[in-house]
Amino acid sequence: MKWSIEIGGVVSTLTRNENFTEGAQVLPKKCRDPRIFSVPCTIGECTFANAMLDLGASINVMPTSIYKALNFSNLEPTGMTIQLANRSIVQTLGVLKDVLVQVNELIFPTDFYVLDMKDEKSEKESTLFLGRPFLMTARTKD
Hints:
Helix content: under 10%
Number of strands: 8
CATH topology: Cathepsin D, subunit A, domain 1
Largest sheet: 3 strands, mixed
Order of helices and strands: EEEHEEEEEH
Distance between the termini: 51 Å
Low-confidence stretches: none
Strand order of the largest sheet: 1-2-8
Structural class: mainly beta
Pfam families: Asp_protease_2 (PF13650)
CATH class: Mainly Beta
Number of domains: 1
Protein name: Aspartic peptidase DDI1-type domain-containing protein
């Protein structure tokens, strides 16, 4: 089989220009994806200095100790079970809907699944786990 190539009337050429790199902008160094980082936030009168923001989590989680300390209303029951990162399966105590979470000057309504977690810290030192739903509510990009 024979191939034929038809060249049009205009042919452009590439030349080597030694001065080309002089005007080029240096790109910033690419940082790795942190996956998990902490942000300060406030719920009601309680401030959490290290709420964990997990880009891989599909739900927002609140330990029972924080739920009790905040004196929220009754939980909405769910029949949901969650598989944790260590592959253990836990039953949620319920879901707490439309909790107002303040990050800096911005306030976002967020749903939290409450889990009975063994917490070695006091309720003041316990942390929240914010996942992709929080980021979507905040209109951020993963």
